[in-house]
Amino acid sequence: MPQDDVVVELASVSKGFWRDKVEIPVLTDTTLHIPRGDFVAIMGPSGSGKSTLLNLCAGLDRPTTGRVIVNGQDLGELSEARLAKWRSENLGFIFQMYNLMPVLTAQENVELPLLLTPLSRAERRRQAETSLRIVGLSDRADHYPRQLSGGQEQRVAIARALANDPVLLLADEPTGNLDAASAQEVLDLLDGLNQQFGVTIIMVTHDPKAARRAKRLLHLEKGTFVQADIEALEAAR
Amino acid sequence: MIKYLPLIVRNVFRNKIRSLFTGASIAVSLFLVVTLYALLTHQDELAEASKVHNRVAVMHKAGLSGQLPIGHLDRVRSMPAVQVAAPMSWFGGNYREETVQFAQFGTDPQTIFKVYEELEIPPDQLAAWQKDRTGCIVGSVIARNKGWKIGDRIPLQGNIYPVDLELTVDGIYDGPSTVDREWLLFHFDYMDQALQEMRYPTAGNAGIVMLRTTTAEQVPQVMRAIEDAFASSDAPVKSLTEKQFAQSFTEMFGNVRGFIRYTSLAVVSALLCVAANTMAMSVRERTREIALLKAIGFSKPSVLTMFLCESVLIGLVGGVVGALGGKLLFSLVDLSTVAPGLGLFYIPWGTALWGLALASLIGLLSGLVPAWRAAQISVIDGLRKVV
Asked: Do A84 and B387 touch (CB under 8 A)?
């Protein structure tokens, strides 16, 4: 696969945490290639290393050994300050709890990552409006998070993640806090973003139905990828 | 940072009750501190403004407790560069049943309005007073507060001197807001004759002599000349500029400046703790939001600056209400109606703006530790298990 087509590359990555002078391994010698335009679902039991993997891809954490390269940039080479800037230019985040700013309207929440860009106020506004249109919430632009349903809040969060036109969208349990109908809407949206706009998505989920919407399923067990298929996982649930 | 202003402002007011109480505590404390400081600074400012009148106060070397033989007055008047001089003796009498005294001076009706050239009085009223030994002139503020008008009788019971005075209002003086318009001026001779008739020991003495020189440059030279002239007399004197004279009253109460400074320091310290606690609570409540900001690319310095701006803004709001509000309050409320002698009190602009700067500094200092902690929040811990 040509290097340019790989968005995420984990090369022999290991990560452990220290608890009372004992190192607890979370990821062990993990290697992963995610091509541009891929939609990967990562499943696995609690403590299997899913969130740690996502944190490493986001540059929020650093591996004990190995390299994490995202969009051609070795994250280990960046200082904390440059990593923050790099995240603002390359990544979009979607969280289980939405994490919208309660004091800002939907429009302002979407504009938040754009404050870090040199865009003018009018340009930021236009870009945020476009993102809200994509997620179908143009009519809710002036609403505060408390005035929105859970599904709508998550769609605003997706619009915020899209606002800076990210190379990679990282979603951690994006449907974990939603009812079935809202979850379906959010998954349709992610699917559409991947299909129509070619956005590369890594989604951590516990829900096989959500995982089924991805192009690829990766299953983590005790810090290592193992073979698994959706049917087996659904049956296990 | 301007781009972040809407977020900063909304975060300041997100918890309205808490912001209100914090802002109110800053405002009340700032009002207190600024008012205390203004007690000194307004006097300094007035005294500084009075420098243009080139006035010098001459008193006994022992201070205001000593007496100046009235004969000194003529010698002072005859000195080169002394343009005009008048005696001023504090009578300190009680008006009717009132226990709070106002300023009553025995003086020379021919010269006092030349010494205090900024006081304004209609010539016919001045002439009437000059001819009336038992007459008096009152300031427009005290006349208004006590309902006095020309022709009214004012009985004063002596406290310092064993004589009572029966005075008639012959005129009402006015002047710019920077001059004291709460004085009552009567003939020095009227009081002194009563004292001489009863052979009172201090008869024939004045409290101080207030003089005016022709130019400002002559003031130090005249002060020196007067002190030298009376150095070997039975009543040696000291001379003070009008500013020094005004400050000497404050100093009579001891180290007032030090007292105000230390009281203010204590108030500001307590305020710092209150404001810092508010900011710390705010940071604790917003751990997840801070983590989000850092996750999406806000740097540590950005987060630090945003929180510092928040705390400075809280301080500024309190400062505007406390310091500028205090200035407005004292410019609208006439204190002479409730506290005689304080009619001239105001908060100088310099003191009000100093209060505003102090409020901002309190905001900044109180926000330092919470803002630093906010900047250090780990994204992973802040978002819990989420990314």
From this structure: no
Domain ranges of chain B: 2-47+254-384, 62-235
ipTM: 0.91
Is A58 close to B300, i.e. CB distance below 8 A? no
pLDDT 10s digits, A140-174: 999 999 999 999 999 999 999 999 999 999 999 99
DSSP symbols for B143-168:
HHHHT--TT-EEEEE-SSSS-EEEEE
| Residue at A196 is within a domain | yes
Q: Is residue A106 part of a domain?
A: yes
pLDDT in the model for residue B386: 38
Predicted local confidence at residue B248, as pLDDT: 81
- Specify the 3-state DSSP secondary structure of B228: helix
Closest CA to B39 of B215, B260, B332, B366: B260
Q: What is the pLDDT of residue A236?
A: 53
Q: Which residues in chain B are contacts of A101 at CB distance < 8 A?
A: 7, 289, 292
| A103/B contact by beta carbon, under 8 A | yes
Q: Domain count of chain A?
A: 1
Closest Cα in chain B, distance from residue A1 (Å):
28
Whole domain around residue A162: which residue ranges? 37-58+77-236
Residues of chain A found within 8 Å of residue B292, distances taken between Cβ atoms: 93, 95, 99, 101
